Structures are given as C-alpha cells and as structure tokens.
Amino acid sequence: MKVVKKIKEMQKLADKYRTQKKIIGFVPTMGYLHEGHLSLVRIAKKKSDICVVSIFVNPLQFGPQEDYHIYPRDFPRDKKLLKVLGVDIIFYPEVKEMYPEEQLTFVQVRKLSEGLCGRSRPGHFEGVATVVAKLFNIVKPHIAVFGQKDYQQAVIIKKMVKDLNFDVKIIIAPTVREKDGLACSSRNIYLSEKERKEAVVLYQSLLLAKEMITKGERNPEEIIKEMKKLITTKSSGKIDYIEIVDADTLQPIKEIRGKVCIALAVFFDKARLIDNILVQSG
Q1: pLDDT reading at 282 higher than 80
Q2: Catalytic residue among 37, 69, 124, 142
Q3: Which of the residues 5, 19, 40, 158 has the least number of beta carbons within 10 Å of its own beta carbon?
C-alpha cells in the first residue's frame, strides 16, 4: 500500500493504471474511519482493480463556527485499517497541496444544495462539490463510492458528475449502523455516554415515519410532528431540521407520493448528527 501526498504523483499513477486498462475505484473520506467508511472501501475493492482512498479534512466545507480544527484525526489508525482491507493507495495531501493559493474557482450545484443541510450550513456543499471535483481530476477514478447517510451530498455529487460530464460512475451505498441503530459517524465520538444512549432516538423517529407512511399517512406535517415529539421527549437533542423531500429533487413535498427521503439533523451539545431513510410509498 502506497501513501501518496503529492497531486502530480497521484495523477501520474492514475495515468499509468488507466494505460494498463485497470479500473480505479475511489472512496473520498475525511479520515477517522469507521465501519461505514470501510463498507464503502469493500464495495470499491470489489468493483475495481486499483482501490484508492483519500483522507483529507477539507477546510472549504466547514463554516467559521464549525468543528474544522477539532474534527477527529488519526492517520496511523486509518492507515492500519485500510492496509487490512487491501487498499492500494491512500491519497493523503496537506491543505497547502490542495489549496496552494487562494481558491477562486468553486463548483456550485444549485437547488439540490439549498435545502436540508445546505440551509443550515451555507457554503458547505460548494466546498464539498469543489473538493470532490478536484479529487476526481487528481485520482481519475472510473468508480467512486459514497454513503447514503450523507444522502444530500451523494445526490449533489451525482448531479455534478452528470452536468459536468465527469467520466466516473457514482455508487451510493447503504447507511451502516451500530447495533442499536445509530448511524456510524466520525462525529459520534463527540457524544457523552448519556447522549450516545439518547441518540438512538434519531433512527427510531425515522422508523416511526416509515411505519406511519406504510399505514397510509400521506401528510408530511403530521409525520414530522410525531417525529419531533418522539425526539424531544426521549432525548436532550435540539432539532436543526426534520424534512420529508422528494428523493430525486430534494424539494419539500405537500403530499407523500412515490419515493421520498426523510431526513433530519439534531444537535447533541456540539455534535450535529444527521440521518435519513428512503421510503417508497404506495
């Protein structure tokens, strides 16, 4: 397994593999890997000849009051985990390598990035789309794997790839959860023992929403009201948002029809946790 820190070296290796007709699979991460990340790596490994994982905490996607400086980092641990999985290359650039001077070019995916987390974190998805576009030009993958837990991000990346004609196939893999249902997240480390126990209510609220839809409820407001009641009575979490949107357009809906995404973001002290499920209504 190689650790590559320079853009030019990574591009040169990617060119070599492509010349050899090898399929490059890619998983972009911010490190501090958990089982969710590792599941994406396993998918990329299965579908490619060369598996590349990037580890880069991207400053462009953090707001001024957010957790960029304290975001968990542990490269030696990440490296061991990826070696066990048989990853071929870790692309591990420094910030000054990715952004050697003031960045004046940004990728903005309109509409899809304006609601949900985009409303709460202005500029976040512009930072995400920009760094992913850069990484695609550096790693030159044939396949890239993203997780459903960050569903809005995955939809935005798919649209960026389509609109800008990137020659890469995007795979969205299922959310990986702890045994009690909490979605795996690097930010779970911020939770106190009490908060960790309470946080399972997020998934419980999503399952409640799914059950209501299965039983015939078609009014999003009624479902959201019940979800809020469950979260506020069973936890100290402060709700950022709960929304039910069209699974493709991410636009709010007045009536549940077809495939919808039920998404939420909740603060437990400094930890902002997100989760979602997709539901196909009758």
Answers
A1: no
A2: 37
A3: 19
